[in-house]
Each structure stands twice: as C-alpha cells, then as structure tokens.
Amino acid sequence: MKCQISYNSPTTSARILSVHPTSTAAALALISDDMREVDKVIALRLSSGVPLVGEVAQYIISAGGKRLRPAIHLLMCGALGYRQTQRFNMAAVLEFIHTSTLLHDDVVDDSSLRRGRATANEVFGNPASVLVGDFLYSRAFQMMVEIQDMRVMQILADAVNVIAEGEVLQLVNMHDATLTEAAYLRVIRSKTAKLFEASTRLAAVLNGATFEIEQACAEYGQALGTAFQVIDDVLDYDGDVAEMGKNLGDDLREGKATLPLIIAMQRGSQAQCATIRHAIENGEVEKIEEIIQIVRATGALEATRDAAAAEARRAIEATSLLPANTYTSGLLQLAAQLLERRS
C-alpha cells in the first residue's frame, strides 16, 4: 500500500467528484435494511447485568453519525456477493470497537462536545467512560470468538493493537510544532484508517476472496479512512459548528499539529509560522481566528483538501477489481462525496 499523499494536483478534487454526482445518502440507502439488522444485534449485545454499562454505551451509540465502518463493511460484502448473516455480527463488532475508542478518546482529549451534544465523560464522568469503553472492547472480542475464524480474529486483533499504538503516538506528538507530514500520516493511518481497512478486508475474508481481491478491499478501506481523517482535520478550521457538532479549534486546543497547520507553517511567513507554533506548543486558541486566516491565506486548506482527494482517488482506483454492481457504485459514491463533507 502507498504511504504518501500528494497535495500538488489542483484538479484532483474535480476528477474525483466526476466519478458519481449522487449523494452519500444514496450509497447508504443500499444497506438501510442491513443496518437495521445490525442495530438489532447491537441492542441485543449491549445487554449487561450492570445498568450503567448499558446506559453509557447506549448514550454514545445512539448519538447518531453515519456509522461508516459498519457501512463500508456491508457495502463491500454486497459488492462481493456475500449475503450471510455473519456480516451483521461483524458490522456490530466494528461499531463496538469504534465506539470504545470514542469513549477513551474523549477522556484523553478532555472533550465536552461530540455530534452536537455532551460527551459521555461529560455526562457520566471519566471513570465510567473508560470502563464502559473496556466493556465494549471485551464484548467485541467475545463476538469475534463466536465467529470461530482465526483469520478474522487476527485482522481485528491487529487492528485494535495498531489503533492503540496510534493513540499513543498522537499523545506523544501533542504540542510538537515540528511534526512532519510523514509523522502525521503515521498517526492517522494507525488511529483512524486502520479500522476502515479492517472493515473492508473482513468482507473479503468472510467471502473467501482471493488475495488480490482482499488487498484491493483493504486498499479501499485504508484510503477512504485516510481521506476521512484528512477532511476532518480541514473542518477543524473550515467547518460549520452547528453541522459538525463540535467546536472549531478543538484540535489546536489539544495541541495537535494537523496537516492544515503543517502546510501553513511550510508556506507562511516567519511571523505566521511563529503564531501557529506558539499556539500548538501551548494549546492556545485565543488567536484561532488569526490562525484560520493564516491557514486560508497560505492555501493550506486547499492543499489539504487536495491531499484528501488523492486518497479518495486511490480508493476509487482500488474498486477496479471489484464486480460491477450497485454496491460497488455505492463505494465509489462514498469516496467521491467524502470531499463534499462539511460535518
């Protein structure tokens, strides 16, 4: 798999968006019935003899969102022709793992707002959030064992381990204004893209696909996950607070040197670089408006969007080995429409 992204092609976004002009909703509509089945599995497997466990877990799972990891798993299963009910259990496992990372992330980042409402740690406290996150991890592994497939276990266990490494890397990189693009990419490929990759690879494994097809599925997931995170980092400086459900400048407040800031420091004047560097090193948002203007003036937002477009293109190219059907078209739509994301 490729390990670099390029933001030097100004026409990349246009080429990606020309693939399919329809909305993400159209792609997700293909699996609406499947997602209802996944919801049933989630509701059933959230049950616990400890009321607080179910209360906290239900709070964050019911918060909304597109559930992209289960969605791309189900779309990839559809593209490959895999229709067995095991896909629902696998999708629920993926959602449990993702939800547990959200619970832990919000504690680590001291976040108070997610998807437009108070985070679980804000409502229930940090200890409850951490421990319920642990419960969801362990419940996911119980469900993996039930599948009785060592290859599935290996993919998910490796993914969880890589995600944990990514979280630690991000912690180590906090307040480091010298962070390079390569180091930034290492974090997001581990922390975010790895579970996307596992989601699509698992569809191929469940279907008994060839190694070549499995690699193409994994490539799609990794590229899509990388593009998703890059766009997320753009939105921290160019998003709508009401639509995003979180505050602008949250990444800066946490001392994260994301791609828009890295590029802005590469392109900006000495004074502009000093302003951004000081904000990262001190986690200050007092000059957030000035920094947003610097990021825009240096072309860093456009460059970062082009970086995401390059990853979306890689995801689209990976689908060339998949059967031509409506589910594959849905995967293409997700990659193309990702660049229109505003929340």
TrEMBL record:
Superkingdom of the organism of origin: Bacteria
Keywords: Magnesium, Metal-binding, Transferase
GO terms, biological process: isoprenoid biosynthetic process
Main enzyme class: transferase
GO MF annotation list: all-trans-octaprenyl-diphosphate synthase activity; metal ion binding
Stated role: Supplies octaprenyl diphosphate, the precursor for the side chain of the isoprenoid quinones ubiquinone and menaquinone.
Membership in a protein family: Belongs to the FPP/GGPP synthase family.
Protein name as catalogued: Octaprenyl diphosphate synthase
Originating organism: Rhodoferax koreensis
Taxonomic classification: Bacteria, Pseudomonadati, Pseudomonadota, Betaproteobacteria, Burkholderiales
